[in-house]
Please model this.
Amino acid sequence: MVLRKLPGVSASGMGLRLSQKFVFLLFLSGLVTLCFGALFFLPDTVRLKRIFLSKNENPAVTVGHDNELSKKVPGDPEHQRVALKGGEGANVKLKVSRKPSVTHGARTVERSVGSRAQEEWSPARAQEPAARDERVTSAAHNGERGSAYSYEAFKSCLLKPALGRNQGTPPDSETLQRREKVKEMMTFAWDNYKRYAWGNNELRPLTRNGHLGNMFGGLRGASIVDSLDTLYIMGLMEEYEEAKEWVQNNLDLNSNGEASLFEVNIRYVGGLLSAYYLTGAEVRFRLICLGEKLLPAFNTPTGIPRGVINLGSGTSWSWGWASAGSSILAEFGTLHLEFLHLSQLSGSPLFTEKVMNIRKLLNKIEKPHGLYPNFLSPVSGNWVQHHVSIGGLGDSFYEYLIKSYLMSDKTDQEAQKMYYSAMEAIETNLVQKSPGGLTYVAEWRGGILDHKMGHLACFSGGMIGIGADDGPAGQRQHYLDLAAEITHTCHESYSRSATKLGPEAFRFDAGAEATATRLSDRYYILRPEVIESYMYMWRLTHDPKYREWGWEAVEALEKHCRVDAGFSGIRDVYASTVSHDNMQQSFFLSETLKYLYLLFSDDDLLPLEDWVFNTEAHPLPVIHKRCLYLQTRLKDPL
Ligand code: DMJ
Model:
């Protein structure tokens, strides 16, 4: 019935006239074109879009990759190489969209084939479920983008060979013997970890088993990741290969637990970054995946990250013990070095933007007497308490200011300014001289001094030393003297104990001078800070006392901390019969033994012109001015 009413439809059947057929076909083809075109406007995650559009046709894939490169580094040979990889269509489409690339989804997997990401794809990784995660796939994409900064390009930026002319072998036999001893300690610590705790985070040397703990959100193998670069610089190649193989085949990033943003960053991100830069190990892809898993912690009203993050769900929260849901200065202030390198390797400015935002807020906020308190609200962006310390809760924030400046080849003047103003405020308000003539850095509680210095604060001797050259005019010697005085005080805290190891905290009140007065402060957990300062002061002054002090520490560690199956912390440094805490901390392998080894090596092993150490002693390369093209790109983000 209806058909009969339609013009052009014959009564005898459904036949159409030729002209009608033509119009109908025209209409049909128009409809098909319209539908296909509409695919371009679907969200990136819609499957149809990925099925129908080939990778070179997908405009989102090309965004932010060649776009950034072609816009910001014209003429750079590395850029040209990458731009070609994108295909001709890439550069044309790039001009249209300026979306940040990190949010790009699974589509990027296809694109990464044939790129750097593919080079790094091992069979083990291919089986890893994480590879199917959308954020991970975007990392693959970014890994590819980062291929502009190839490993070879990076190596050509170094001024000197990383391991020196002869692996830093010292010319005199006594120092060489001492260095060999430290290497033996590392082998002993490693072998026992391997035998009794392989894959766990730390070794429990008395009970001969592993410890996982709850700081790393279910990530495993902290001692392995922390040891990679130490094993490598010590020339323990068999052990290094074992460690690398474990990372490649067994380090599972798909964990789902409560992690400290700070600890995962300094140990895992830092450890993997160093392994990559020192050896070219194929960890770049995984590094970027891990970096991305930390990003949700920054989703706060101010962009100041919270301290704890679930690596699986991305939910983040503040430590229960931190007052009023605050974030900790030493935690959110100790991301800068690693995040800058994550941007270098991924080509994504996002990591840099996150840490620059922290710096911006810290610059803007009013500081009591020019000091930075330890607790800040990630919601309001205001200080929560006025407790200031260069030890625990504050320490590595200051360290990362001066090291950001040094790692930028002294171009990051903002970091320079912040560091020296902070130092000035610390000197005015916190630095004290004891009646016995020992210089120390007290803690500050709303204007009242607590005459206590933590073991953690003893890193400051080295920090002030490496910062001596670039402060206000005429201050170099002053800073070198201050660094030497603090290092001397920290050495005193060791030499005044029965074990010749230093307590967790020592005081300068009620008649005490560099000794712990409370039972709860008497322990030593294999911490590195005092030895770290010896190492820097040795490099800066070549005063033989620093090597002697380091050797005293080796003897004390051997005598009191070495047990049958590894090294252990002790509960009371003042007791001549020690009680062990049954824990071989991963930082003993990454920091304490590394700094000792460097102390007894020539200065050309990891020269300070080329390397800065992150706060877990993982060496990260200085980004030299002549290799600045990526930095230029990052300063002018999408
Ligand atoms: C290490 O994890 C790092 O050095 C950190 O900055 C402070 N604490 C430990 C070592 O004591």
